[in-house]
């Protein structure tokens, strides 16, 4: 914590949950956009072969020739893979289809879990935050993100078995702390696609809060159709419709996260 505040290094946050469709990419894109609106410089790293974060930020498929795969494998320097987005202050390392084969290649490589950490750490000083959008699996790509990160942010959809679903992730975080990355923190848990008319949503949210306590953000992200429309326009919802409930929620989430970090730094 203290080291963080004096060194002025980028804070690296992996956005992870091995379940697909829970709002990882949506949270990555819109949290990043809300952060740059508060004058933070943010780098998004798309580590999912599906490339939804790259598409959602408007990076053309033709403009992904050098991508996160090459950074991970050591074929390119981070700077060579960075693209500027239309949003001032927000840069992205896109993913490419090559990334889908990376796992098999990584298995053969020395220090296969620390490759992303080694590529990022010396190269991210120019940013305040680096957000890593992880694939929906606890594979070697996600492990690389967790080893490189200072903290993990977990988007969680309030559905049956949500808690059982993240127990595996929690165990993985624990194992990584004991091995490669002792300082790895749980940044927080954000409840996504929240539907307050649904009793099950409320029940699951109460269980998650009982289990994780104040690690769960007060801000919840509502289910909102504008959020699901935005990616097809290659824009964050905050740009597509900055007044909708989804945009407001992400602005609140960013504010809550930054406030909690300031408090933690002061307390350290
Ligand atoms: N709050 C929300 N309201 C409505 N749709 C959402 C919301 N969050 C995400 N979605 C939609 O749900 C789908 C899955 O979200 P996504 O962020 O891609 O999940 P993940 O990255 O975890 O697989 C996408 O089509 C996305 O547009
Ligand atoms: Mg995704």
From TrEMBL:
It comes from the Bacteria. CDD domains: ParAB_family. SUPFAM superfamilies: P-loop containing nucleoside triphosphate hydrolases. It holds the Pfam family AAA_31. Residues 11-185 form the AAA domain. Involved in chromosome partition. Localize to both poles of the predivisional cell following completion of DNA replication. This is Chromosome partitioning protein ParA. It comes from Magnetospirillum moscoviense.
């Amino acid at each position: 914590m203290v080291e963080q505040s004096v060194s002025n290094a980028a804070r690296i946050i992996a956005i992870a949950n091995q379940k697909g469709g829970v709002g990882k990419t949506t949270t990555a894109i819109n949290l990043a956009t809300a952060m740059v609106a508060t004058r933070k410089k943010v780098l998004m790293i798309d580590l999912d072969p599906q490339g939804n974060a790259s598409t959602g930020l408007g990076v053309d498929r033709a403009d992904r020739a050098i991508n996160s795969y090459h950074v991970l494998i050591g074929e390119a320097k981070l700077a060579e893979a960075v693209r500027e987005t239309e949003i001032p202050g927000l840069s992205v390392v896109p993913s490419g289809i090559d990334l889908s084969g990376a796992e098999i290649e990584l298995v053969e490589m020395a220090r296969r879990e620390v490759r992303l950490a080694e590529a990022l750490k010396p190269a991210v000083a120019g940013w305040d935050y680096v957000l890593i959008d992880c694939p929906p699996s606890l594979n070697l790509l996600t492990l690389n993100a967790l080893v490189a990160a200072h903290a993990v942010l977990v988007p969680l959809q309030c559905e049956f078995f949500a808690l059982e679903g993240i127990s595996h992730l929690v165990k993985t975080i624990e194992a990584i702390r004991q091995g490669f990355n002792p300082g790895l923190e749980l940044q927080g848990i954000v409840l996504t696609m929240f539907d307050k008319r649904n009793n099950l949503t409320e029940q699951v949210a109460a269980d998650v809060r009982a289990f994780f306590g104040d690690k769960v953000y007060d801000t919840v992200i509502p289910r909102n159709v504008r959020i699901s429309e935005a990616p097809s326009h290659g824009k964050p919802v905050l740009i597509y419709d900055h007044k909708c409930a989804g945009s407001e929620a992400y602005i609140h989430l960013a504010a809550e996260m930054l406030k909690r970090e300031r408090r933690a730094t002061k307390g350290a």
